[in-house]
Amino acid sequence: MRFKKIHSAFIAAVLTCSLTVTPVFAEPTQSELEDQKANAQSELATLQSDLDVLASKISELENQLIQTGEEIAQAEKDLAAAEKKKEEQYDAMKLRIKYMYESGSGTATMEKVMTSGDISDMLSQAEYSQQVHEYDREQLQEYANTVAEIEDLQTKLEQEMASLKENEAEYQEQQAVLTETIADKQDEISNLDEMIQEAARKAEEERKAAEEAARRQQEEASRAAAQASSGNSDNSSNSSNSSGSSSGGSSGSSSSSNPPYNASTGNAIVDRAYSKLGCAYVWGATGPDTFDCSGLVGYAVSGSYSRVCTSSSLAGLPSVSDPQPGDICVKSGHCGIYIGNGMMIHAPTTGDVVKVAPVQSGMWYVRW
Q1: Chain-centre distance of CA 68, in angstroms?
Q2: Which residue has the higher pLDDT, 130 or 86?
Q3: Buried b (16+ CB within 10 A) or exposed e, 343-365
Q4: Cα 302 versus chain centre, distance
Q5: Confidence of residue 11 (pLDDT cuts 50, 70, 90)
Q6: Cα three-residue angle 208-210-215, rounded to 5 degrees
Q7: Cα 257 from chain centroid?
Q8: Contact indicator for 314, 366 with CB cutoff of 8 Å
């Protein structure tokens, strides 16, 4: 924002200076204006290149966020599986203890063995009991190690996710500044175009005025030196020149048409989006019960629970100026399904669910 303020102050200063010196100095020529436009276009190309590089970084970061979200989801599944394995092991251990008790493998068996005097039977029972205890201890230690590894991995992934989100926010702020700067530069070029056209118009008027003055001088000289018949010839020449001076009317304006809208396809996309209202937001999720923003849009447009798009790839689709239900609302880092009347269905952020909301500021519309 500081850059924007400096840039705005600079433009205001330039305009103020131009207003101040206009009465003293001559207006810039067409050639000078064209040089200014060329410099502005060069600056615009550099800014656009910087924006393209930043957009590429944002796209790469978005893919990393999706991948990390999927890894966190997998770690949670692994942890749940380890917990289940622990419960199964605990139940099995209880069954072994119960079996030892019921079959006399515990204190009762030892009493029987001591009474009968069969020392080999006693040693066999004691060895079996020791093996059972060692196995249980090993299994419990293996479970504890597994849980610790999964928890460490989950913590590491969550820290990585937080860092990636910070980077994304920083990149998006830079992108917003660059986008505003590019818009200002485009306005500057547009103003220069108007000034160039005005300068060309004035130059053309001056040229025509000079030609008209020269023609009149020639006609006056011809009248003075020629006979009355030459005057008729001059009139014919005047008529010809007059008819030849008005040319180049309005040219056919090109108009870019939006991609054709298919109501059936649009309604099907909206119906699929409505069917997922209330599903939880999870980074990297593509359904069927959890989604991130591009996962929800991908399902709505394709009916597939797979990653068919990202917000960055959606930005490359044909934009439309008359959004219809089923079109896609998109901006850097986020997307949703347009349902009409300025509303959309989207998966907002962690801790939220798929829901209907107003179309966010800064979004534009594309058609699948």
Answers
A1: 18
A2: 86
A3: ebbbbbeeeeebbeeebeeebeb
A4: 19
A5: very low
A6: 90
A7: 24
A8: yes
* Helix or strand (DSSP H, E) at 358: strand 355-358
pLDDT-based confidence at residue 275 (cuts at 50, 70, 90): very high
User: pTM, whole model, 2 decimals?
Assistant: 0.41
Closest CA to 307 of 78, 70, 75: 70
| Strand, helix or coil for residue 231 | helix
Alpha helices (H) along the chain: 2-21, 30-102, 107-116, 119-225, 228-244, 263-274, 293-302, 311-314
Which string of DSSP letters, residue by residue, matches 245-268? S----PPPPP-PPPPPP-HHHHHH
Q: Check: CB of residue 336 under 8 Å from CB of residue 356.
A: no
Beta-bridge partner residues of 330: 335, 364
Q: Which residue has the tokens 């020449």?
A: 237
Separation between Cα atoms, residue 47 and residue 313, nearest integer Å: 21
At 355, give phi and psi (nearest 5°).
-155, 170
pLDDT in tens, 38-73: 888 888 888 888 878 877 887 787 787 788 778 777
Collect contacts of 85-94 with beta carbons under 8 A, ≥24 apart.
85/143, 86/143, 86/147, 89/136, 89/139, 89/140, 89/143, 93/136
Look-up of token digits 């056209």: 197
Measured distance CA(101)–CA(97) in Å, rounded: 6
